[in-house]
Structures are given as C-alpha cells and as structure tokens.
Amino acid sequence: MGGWAAFKVAIRKRETPFHARLYDMAKFIFGISMPVVPGLHSFLYNEWATRTSIWHNFWRVVYYEPMFKSQCRSVGKNFRMWYSGNGTTRILGNLGIYIGDNVAMFDKVSLVGLTVCENPELHIGSNVYIAPFVRFMVAKRIDVGDYSMVGCHIIMDNSGHPVADARARMVPGGGHPSKGGVRPVRIGVLCFLGEASVIYPGTTVGDGVVAKVGTHIMGEIPPFCLIEGNPCRIVGKLPINDNLAEVFGEERVRAWRKAQDVVVLDA
Hints:
The chain is α/β, with parallel strands linked by helices. Helices cover 27% and strands 23% of the residues. It is built from 5 helices and 21 strands. It is extended and about 80 Å long.
C-alpha cells in the first residue's frame, strides 16, 4: 500500500493521537452546514432554476431539437425534447422514425434500428409522452398509438441476440437475432405503460391499457385492462368513459366495451 493510502487508513483507524486529531478535524470540516438565510437562499434557488431553464431551452430550440428532427423521416408540429441531462435522443442504426403532433420525448431515450430486416421503422402517434430512459429496439416495426404515455425500460420486436443458436452468439457483441424471431409490436391509443415495464416481440397492447411499474408485457392485451407482474396478468377492468366517443367515435367505444366484456380477470 502506498504512503498516501496508508496515511489515510491510519487516519480512519486513528492509530495515534496525531491521526485521531486529524480524523476529528476532518469530521468537523465535512460536518459543517450553512444555516438557511430566509429570503436569500430562496432567491438563489429560484435564480438558479430560472437561469438553467433558460439555458437548456435555448440550446433545445437552436441545437438539440433541430439536430434530432434532421434524423427523422417526419416530425409533426409542436415536438418537444425535454432535458434530463443528455441534450438529445441518441439514434443508433438506420432507423426510420415517424413522429406525430404534440409529442414530448426526453433526451435520455435510446432509439436503435437493427440490421436484421431492411428499413426498420418506429411510428409514434400524436400527443404521446416518452419518459426518460425508454429504449426502443427495432428490427422491423414498432407502433405507439396516440395519447399514450410510455415509461418502459425496453420495447423490442426481436430477441436482441440469437436464442436457438448458441454458436451464433460466439461473436463480439453476441450476434444478431434471426429474422424468424422478429415480430412487430403495436401499442394502442390511450395506453399508460409504467416505469421499468418491458414489451416483448409480437405484443399487441390494446387501447386504454394501463401497465403497473415493472410489468412484463407479452401477447395480446385486451382494451382498457389493468395489468401487472411477470409474466403480465390482467388484474382489473378500467372504465371506458362516454366522453371518449367525442374523440374516437361511438362505434370504437362500443367495440372497446364489447372486447372488455369477455375478459376474465386472472386470479
């Protein structure tokens, strides 16, 4: 152990009266806390919050948002890139991105287009909210419906790596999934997918579905159901408000109710 490292250990152990005094001095210094000055520190906090907000919004408008939109096939009006420490969303691979109107997406979102299939596509509807740390892994196609809020850990239409062929994983990076394992994912309108949830290949999330935090979503989920767990299970039926017909039409609301009526809750 080096001299400086040994000296620090001696202080922590207070091996001698000299080391003990240094330990007490350090504990006193690191324990100093500035008392709150009424008015002053409140002003300083608000000044800091305002200044950083103006700074981040300036760079969002002139740099980060235009830079991201230049990589998309289409972006609707009122797109917003919220700041959470990264600046802009990172795009890996040749991914065709289509975004509707009034979409809010945090900068710490990962968009990945794989080379398994030609021209993978991500379609995000209008009035969609994409939370921080969401990851889309697209080999063919993923769709997110209007008015949905997405907080998933990962949404993938593929396995990410070979599953049945162990030899194929014996390459740097673990290899690519097979085309046979690619199955498109569809998320309906009005969905609320909680933080750290996971959506697996081939999943269809019905309109109005709410997934609790950490839910592993797979298969076909009926509309307006509450789901949880790994694997997911249906634990409740959500109300289908009459006023939804003003936006989506009477026929669609009747179809939601008809599909929900035959749902049996999991024990």
